[in-house]
Write a structure and sequence with these properties.
Blueprint: H1 4-46, E1 97-104, E2 107-114, H2 119-130, E3 137-138, E4 141-143, E5 149-152, E6 184-186, E7 190-193, E8 206-209, E9 213-215, E10 221-225, H3 227-239, E11 247-248, E12 255-263
GO molecular function: peptidyl-prolyl cis-trans isomerase activity
Organism: Streptomyces thermolilacinus SPC6
Function: PPIases accelerate the folding of proteins. It catalyzes the cis-trans isomerization of proline imidic peptide bonds in oligopeptides.
């Protein structure tokens, strides 16, 4: 007789294996595409021309690690859709404010969350923090061009991890009306949910905005980073990305040593 816990672990393993196969296939395709582009580029450069290329990543198949060459790529995650396990039952006071404290190797990041505006998001973070889900995880992605965010919350550190369930979008109206380009401003200090690009596909990954950033209004803003935390993230951003790219693992690693969520 297989227990529900064993079944969840089995589903998680199967999901991970599917993701690994998908990512490897994406990498193979990217290598083939890059080879073709490189050959074309060599021809153009030989003729004295200049080439400018842009790639837009869309859909739930994108991988934030493979997106490292695209500085304007949006915060994305590989959380599974549909959910493999149920969203946790509500256990927070939907009228209260909560504080999430991330103790990291670069200092404490303190995030104020309003459960009245984002009850299911706050509830999920409380649930995960209580289970030590974030403890020992790395902030896997820093973006320093196009958008200005540090992305965290993936226990795999690959940009594809998630808790096995999805939570709905919340509080999007607070972002205001999108401009002609379809974007709104996420102010510095905003903490918002990453997703797969599809509605209601948030999992555990989130991003910290360290400089005003223009994004589509589809990422749940659920918290505000305190001044000390914002400074710490900006210091990480100043150090840049590994290898000098505009998007990828931060050169100054950030590890969440312990995460706690408490009612204010």
């Amino acid at each position: 007789m297989v227990s529900s816990d064993q079944r969840r672990r089995q589903l998680a393993r199967e999901k991970f294996e599917r993701q690994q196969r998908r990512r490897e296939e994406m990498r193979r395709k990217a290598r083939r595409r890059n080879a073709v582009v490189a050959a074309a580029l060599a021809v153009v450069l030989a003729a004295g021309g200049a080439v400018y290329a842009s790639v837009q990543l869309t859909g739930p198949e994108r991988d934030s690690v493979d997106a490292a060459s695209e500085p304007s790529a949006v915060p994305s995650s590989g959380a599974p859709t549909p959910s493999a396990s149920p969203e946790p039952s509500m256990a927070v006071d939907a009228k209260a404010a909560y504080t999430m404290t991330l103790k990291t190797n670069v200092g404490d990041l303190t995030i104020t969350m309003d459960a009245a505006k984002t009850p299911r998001t706050v509830n999920s973070f409380k649930h995960l923090a209580d289970k030590k889900y974030f403890d020992g995880t790395k902030c896997h992605r820093l973006t320093t061009q196009g958008i200005f965010v540090l992305q965290c919350g993936d226990p795999e550190g690959s940009g594809m991890g998630g808790p096995g369930y999805n939570i709905p979008d919340e509080n999007l109206a607070s972002l205001g009306k999108a401009g002609a380009d379809g974007k709104v401003t996420f102010k510095a200090g905003t903490v918002a949910m990453a997703n797969t690009g599809s509605p209601n596909s948030g999992g555990s990954q989130f991003f910290l905005v360290y400089q005003d950033t223009e994004l589509p209004p589809q990422y749940t803003p659920f918290g505000t980073l305190d001044a000390a935390g914002l400074k710490a993230v900006r210091d990480v951003a100043k150090a840049g990305v590994e290898g000098g790219a505009p998007d990828g693992a931060p050169k100054k690693p950030v590890t969440v040593e312990k995460a706690t969520v408490s009612k204010k």
